[in-house]
Design brief:
The structure holds two protein chains of two kinds. Chain A is mostly beta strands. Chain A is built from no helices and eleven strands. The mean pLDDT of chain B is 94. Classes of the chains: A mainly beta, B mainly beta.
Chain lengths: 110, 112
């Protein structure tokens, strides 16, 4: 059974810092991996989708990497801003479903 | 573009009552999903559908039913509500099995 772990569970950093969020998964037989952000009381917003054949994907200040063989993905956020404060969730896809980690709650302090 | 729309946003039920959570998407996606999110836990898949007329169980289907009569709609029915069904329910859709998932805003359900 796929298990997804996100470390750290919570992170607080000053504005302007570059930071890395980690995601590990136990079964490497995945089709792709998706990163989401979730604001309090809101739904999930898709940030990046990395296919299993890709090593990384970039969107603006965000860069996600995928090392399928070691069961790891990272989300790099450059020049963090207070608006980046949210919970970040990773979800590898196996067969018909995404399997979610519990997320990293990120707070960017002005 | 509305994307994935869920109704109601909030609902309080008494134990034993039934209700239907509505989900509709306007992106012509074939794949639709229902997840639940409990505090401090990751999202868990309840049911999914790969197209009109086709549904299948996810990880936590007990106490729920779904139907998919059209491409756009994927309602989730709760029969005989129990306190354990207190949760936030999310509907999602994707254009293909390995495609990007798009989520609705969620429906917060409390069973008392």
């Amino acid at each position: 059974k796929q298990e997804v772990t996100q470390i750290p569970a919570a992170l607080s950093v000053p504005e302007g810092e570059n930071l890395v969020l980690n995601c590990s998964f136990t079964d490497s037989a995945i089709y792709n991996l998706q990163w989401f952000r979730q604001d309090p009381g809101k739904g999930l917003t898709s940030l990046l989708l990395i296919q299993s054949s890709q090593r990384e994907q970039t969107s603006g200040r965000l860069n996600a990497s995928l090392d399928k063989s070691s069961g790891r993905s990272t989300l790099y956020i450059a020049a963090s801003q207070p608006g980046d404060s949210a919970t970040y969730l990773c979800a590898p896809r196996e067969a018909q479903k995404l399997v979610f980690g519990q997320g990293t709650r990120l707070t960017i302090n002005p | 573009n509305a994307g994935v729309t869920q109704t109601p946003k909030f609902r309080i039920l008494k134990i034993g009552q039934s209700m239907t959570l509505q989900c509709t998407q306007d992106m012509n996606h074939n794949y639709m999903y229902w997840y639940r999110q409990d505090p401090g836990m990751g999202l868990k898949l309840i049911y999914y559908s790969v197209g009109a007329g086709i549904t299948d169980k996810g990880e936590v289907p007990n106490g729920y039913n779904v139907s998919r009569s059209t491409t756009e709609d994927f309602p989730l029915r709760l029969e005989l509500a129990a306190p354990s069904q207190t949760s936030v329910y999310f509907c999602a859709s994707s254009s293909r099995g390995a495609g990007e998932l798009f989520f609705g805003e969620g429906s917060r359900l409390t069973v008392l």
